[in-house]
Amino acid sequence: MRKVFLLFTVLLSFGLLSACGSSEQFDLTEGNTLTVGLEAAYAPYNWMTQTQNAFTVPLNGQPGAYVDGYDVVVARRIAEELNLELVIKAIEWDGLIQALQANQIDLIIAGMSPTSERAKTVNFSNEYYRSEQVIVVQKTSSLVNATSLNDLSGKRAVAQLGTLQNDLIDQIPNVTKLTALESYGAITQALRSGQADLFIAELPVAQSITAANSDLTYVAFTGENGFEVAEEDVTTAVALRKRDTDLLEAINTVLAGISVETRNGWMTAALERQN
Amino acid sequence: MNDLLMSLPDQGEFFKTLIYLFVTYYKVILFGLGITVLLSVVGTVGGFFLAIGLTGFRTLEVDKKRDTLVIKILKVIGQKFAVLYVTVFRGTPMIVQAMIIFYGVAQANLFSWWSPLPAGLIIVTLNTTAYISEVLRGGLESLDVGQMEAARSVGMTKSQAMRHVMWPQAIKNALPGIGNEFVVNLKDTAVLSVISVVDLFYAVRQSASESYRFLEAFMIAAIMYLILTYLSSKLINYLSRRMSQTGEANL
Predict the structure, then answer these.
(1) What backbone phi and psi angles, to 5 degrees, belong to B148?
(2) CA max distance for chain A
(3) Which among B10, B193, B210 is the nearest to A49, CB-wise?
(4) Is the ipTM of this complex over 0.85?
(5) What is the pLDDT of residues A79-134, one digit of tens each?
(6) What is the CATH code for A133-232?
(7) Which of residues 115-134 of B touch A (CB under 8 A)?
(8) Which CATH superfamily is domain A26-130+235-274 in?
(9) Which one-letter DSSP state was computed for residue A160?
(10) What is the pTM of this model?
């Protein structure tokens, strides 16, 4: 009993300590460091590469490793326009928001959707990409001809843990929802090995996965035949700490200067670089 | 061979993909391998020294006649702390310890240098301390009571007897266990990728992030872990054989 009490005291002191963290806003002075967190494992938004080119940024603390992708292009544009020094850290998906709260990073630019759940903890900028939800299937599967969610009835579907796609599975009638996996690599493997019949992904992710795996293809649905999604779920946005309101405003100004055509061009270019 | 290096092999070309991934990402993978070895070496060596202290606390004996009240209280606190430490660190998974320690300290803004790698080194050291402490305690308790009695009978004080007679033998007995702990660390530090330590596991996961060929990538990880653990086991066996030989010669 006393041990349990002691353990509680230890945990409680952690809680108290965390309450007295810094409360100053991010300092936008020119030349300051802007640290961005992303997975470096979510192509085409962000992926790790050993090749240095005009688009890549070195990964902090990992000599020889660079990160490329749509998110990196956006991060570079933001840092450039705000005259800040860009540093990019690779952080596990589940740890991104925690790392932001813990001041390990200043921004999350990781293909993250601004859900209302997440918005309770962090602030989101305006969208920097808007995507479509599609399903990825084996080329030999009958699902290739599916035109509505009803055609997916009774199939086995899988998605990434803690993502919108995992919630969307429930909209498929009589679906067998498989245990969510931790990365798209594992999900792709599950589909290719026949453990799953389909998975749901954003269009650019589906495009990049099907481009790298010739035995897979994706199916898009039109209008009401597809998944019902909230506005906040099909867009990606930059996540910031609640207190960094000046930085939020500055980022929204930068994003407002990027047209939809430019965005789509960046995404297509990212997909081409990846393959 | 050159074609192999240029572009991603087709689906189903398992071994070609394996070689392609390694050749394309060798810098990142070997750096990750280095981090895994660093974590295991620092964790095991650091854990060993801390464990000597912790076991010292744990094996404190209150001398009812000679100890003053303050000494008695300090000894009891030390003992209880050591027991609690071992209970907590052996009773919770390292992945949980990593999350609590890394994000707890980061959120509290305690140290400006706090980042995944130093945090990982500290976490694996703290964790290993608990395990090696148990190994050392076993080493001490396995010694014959006669050892202590003999040392005392030639005029050594209790602490002299511990330092010159008991501990050297206990450590020697514990060496295979400590070596085993090193091998365990080589594998178990993979969980530290959860706090974004870029060890072998994380590096390999990243190197599949462009092509999504995870099966091949993790096969590379498996091979590298196997090489590491196989070589370390051989080295540890060799060292402990040598130790036992010199030990006998001294007798």
Answers:
(1) -65, -45
(2) 64
(3) B210
(4) no
(5) 999 999 999 999 988 889 999 999 999 999 999 989 888 999 999 999 999 878 89
(6) 3.40.190.10
(7) 115-117
(8) Periplasmic binding protein-like II (3.40.190.10)
(9) B
(10) 0.76
